[in-house]
């Protein structure tokens, strides 16, 4: 029964995703984005990680999608200006092709293709160097914080499903196991994410702060 | 193809018994859900009557007295009137968004009832992450409000919808942090575990004494989530006519009306489950569960007592919120948002830190 529903949920997510980009009305696009989030949350719940699915709904639907809805509804978008026909449409296709292929190249070079061992399948030496160097930088930060992980291939283990210490977590419930692994092995990711969130909080406040004084720079450093 | 008689008998028995068991299984799945929905509907009728009577008492007048004895059927009369009214659609509004808006608000509130334990084994789904389901699903309600405000093709409805959504998401965060503190205290997010963690010392085992600040913040935040006075601005009559509900008539307005009371009931039930000890008889030194486990009749009796106790504790919070509605004046939108972000959020964060440090110290 759950296999049956998994197929429907993934089909619903893909369909909603296509409808997001092909809808004429931007409000309908955001509503289909909400549908994508809800389908993926249901998929995660059926896979067994219920906490992650519920937190998808809390964060994505309850905060991010509402933010999008606020912005889209408050902008006065004239639907006639949005639809492009003829040469206006085809002249933007080459740029779209370039950006899309760049994205696909990044995905193929970063993600490890084999999850069982530590070998990754890479297309060329250039992408090999890119992935190894980025993983090396992240590993160096990680070794500064968690001294028990010391080798170069350990960050792969964060992505790796069959890890030796994962068996310790079968005694815990889901939230405990997420907390245990996030705050020890994944501490570098946690700290990076918190820095990004802090920036996201401080940035808009600094940008939108109303100053009575005309000397903007002076009031920021007051 | 030669089939033996035993095989034929097996196939016959399989098709007869197993299909019947499947049917019973499916019916058995729907029966608790239908019972819960029936209970909720009766609960909403009771709350509407309670509100009329209590507000009449506060304003020193007689409440409803014509619809049924003592006005008990007043809610049914209101519902019937709303069903018979004409369903208006604004002429250039977005019809689909206009229709779906109230439904999403009601659906998200009704789904939260599935994790509330009414008595010892009477919970629709005992999830590991029960209270977080409520938090997650109550995050979907502002989308319904935004859709109904936008689809009305009316600037004032739109503003009302934006304000209602802003109020909802602002008070969600102190609510979540209070619920997190409770999960820390009881070591689990399942509602049944939270109630059972409060069952040891009777009256003194309530989470209310361990989390007084959290109780205070939770009360205010849940009143704001339900959009009841004093946080009534989305439906304010002087400022915005009726906010996002302006263009609604007939049963769609009835859905908003019912959604408000459903939200109130679910918030009150969560207050009893999280802070007031749920279904436990809270008189200390009476070990009631052992008394009632003797035989089947005793268990049924014990479960029924549990339901009555839950409802009695819920009534306390309902009385407090209805009295608050008819006593306090309304807050302005900037006062409302200030209260949510600058007062309740730091207090609930501090409460979480305090709870965490006390948990660490007691280890």
Automatic annotation (TrEMBL), chain A:
It holds the Pfam family Oxidored_q3. Keywords: Membrane, Transmembrane, Transmembrane helix. The chain crosses the membrane at residues 6-23, 30-51, 57-80, 92-115, 188-207. It comes from the Eukaryota. The keyword Transmembrane applies. The keyword Transport does not apply. Gene3D superfamilies: NADH-ubiquinone/plastoquinone oxidoreductase chain 6, subunit NuoJ. GO terms for molecular function: NADH dehydrogenase (ubiquinone) activity. PANTHER family: NADH-UBIQUINONE OXIDOREDUCTASE CHAIN 6 (PTHR33269). Belongs to the complex I subunit 6 family. This is NADH-ubiquinone oxidoreductase chain 6. It comes from Corymbia citriodora subsp. variegata.
UniProtKB/TrEMBL annotation, chain B:
Keywords: Chloroplast, Membrane, NAD, NADP, Plastid, Plastoquinone, Quinone, Thylakoid, Translocase, Transmembrane, Transmembrane helix. It is a multi-pass membrane protein. Pfam families: NADHdh. It catalyses: a plastoquinone + NADH + (n+1) H(+)(in) = a plastoquinol + NAD(+) + n H(+)(out); a plastoquinone + NADPH + (n+1) H(+)(in) = a plastoquinol + NADP(+) + n H(+)(out). GO terms for molecular function: NADH dehydrogenase activity; oxidoreductase activity, acting on NAD(P)H, quinone or similar compound as acceptor; quinone binding. Its EC number is 7.1.1.-. Signal peptide: none annotated. InterPro entries: NADH_UbQ_OxRdtase_su1/FPO (IPR001694), NADH_UbQ_OxRdtase_su1_CS (IPR018086). GO terms for cellular component: chloroplast thylakoid membrane; plasma membrane. It is an enzyme of class 7 (translocase). NDH shuttles electrons from NAD(P)H:plastoquinone, via FMN and iron-sulfur (Fe-S) centers, to quinones in the photosynthetic chain and possibly in a chloroplast respiratory chain. The immediate electron acceptor for the enzyme in this species is believed to be plastoquinone. Couples the redox reaction to proton translocation, and thus conserves the redox energy in a proton gradient. This is NAD(P)H-quinone oxidoreductase subunit 1, chloroplastic. The gene is ndhA.
């Amino acid at each position: 029964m759950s296999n049956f529903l998994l197929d429907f949920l993934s089909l619903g997510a893909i369909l909603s995703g296509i409808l997001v980009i092909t809808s004429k009305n931007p409000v309908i696009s955001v509503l289909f984005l909400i549908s994508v989030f809800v389908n993926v949350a249901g998929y995660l719940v059926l896979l067994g990680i219920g906490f992650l699915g519920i937190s998808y709904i809390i964060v994505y639907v309850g905060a991010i999608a509402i933010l999008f809805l606020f912005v889209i509804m408050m902008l006065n978008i004239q639907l006639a200006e949005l639809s492009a026909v003829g040469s206006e449409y085809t002249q933007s296709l080459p740029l779209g092709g370039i950006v899309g292929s760049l994205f696909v190249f990044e995905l193929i070079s970063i993600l490890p293709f084999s999850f069982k061992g530590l070998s990754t399948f890479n297309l060329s030496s250039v992408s090999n160097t890119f992935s190894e160097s980025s993983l090396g930088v992240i590993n160096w930060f990680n070794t500064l914080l968690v001294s028990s992980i010391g080798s170069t291939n350990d960050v792969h283990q964060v992505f790796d499903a069959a890890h030796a210490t994962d068996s310790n977590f079968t005694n815990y419930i889901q939230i405990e196991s997420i907390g245990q692994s996030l705050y020890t092995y994944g501490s570098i990711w946690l700290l990076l994410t918190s820095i990004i969130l802090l920036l996201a909080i401080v940035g808009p406040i600094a940008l939108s702060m109303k100053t009575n004084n005309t000397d903007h720079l002076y009031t920021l450093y007051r | 193809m030669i089939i033996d008689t035993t095989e034929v008998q097996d196939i016959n028995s399989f098709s007869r018994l197993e299909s019947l068991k499947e049917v019973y299984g499916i019916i058995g799945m729907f029966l608790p859900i239908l019972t819960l929905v029936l209970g909720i509907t009766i609960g909403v009728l009771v709350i509407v009557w309670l509100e009329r009577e209590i507000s009449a008492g506060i304003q020193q007048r007689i409440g409803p007295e014509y619809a049924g004895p003592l006005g008990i059927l007043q809610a049914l009369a209101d519902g019937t009137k709303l069903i018979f009214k004409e369903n208006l659609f604004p002429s250039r509004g977005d019809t689909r968004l206009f229709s779906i808006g109230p439904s999403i608000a009601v659906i998200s509130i009704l789904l939260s009832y599935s994790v509330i334990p009414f008595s010892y084994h009477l919970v629709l789904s005992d999830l590991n992450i029960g209270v977080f389901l409520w938090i997650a699903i109550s995050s979907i309600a502002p989308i319904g409000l935004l859709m109904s405000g936008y689809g009305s093709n009316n600037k004032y409805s739109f503003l009302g919808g934006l304000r209602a959504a802003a109020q909802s998401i602002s008070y969600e965060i102190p609510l979540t942090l209070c619920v997190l503190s409770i999960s820390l205290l009881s070591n689990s997010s399942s509602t049944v575990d939270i109630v059972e963690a409060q069952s040891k010392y009777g009256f003194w085992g309530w989470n209310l004494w361990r989390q007084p600040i959290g109780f205070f913040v939770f009360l205010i935040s849940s009143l704001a989530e339900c959009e009841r006075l004093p946080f009534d601005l989305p439906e304010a009559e002087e400022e915005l006519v009726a906010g996002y509900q302006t263009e609604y008539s007939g049963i769609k307005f009835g859905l908003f009306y019912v959604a408000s009371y459903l939200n109130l009931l679910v918030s009150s039930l969560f207050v009893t489950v999280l802070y007031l000890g749920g279904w436990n008889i809270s008189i200390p030194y009476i070990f009631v569960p052992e008394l009632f486990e003797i035989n089947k009749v005793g268990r049924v009796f014990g479960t029924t007592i549990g339901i009555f106790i839950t409802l009695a504790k819920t009534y306390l919070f309902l009385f407090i919120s209805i009295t608050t509605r008819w006593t306090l004046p309304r807050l302005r939108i900037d006062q409302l948002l200030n209260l949510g972000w600058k007062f309740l959020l730091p207090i609930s964060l501090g409460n979480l830190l305090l709870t965490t440090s006390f948990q660490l110290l007691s280890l």
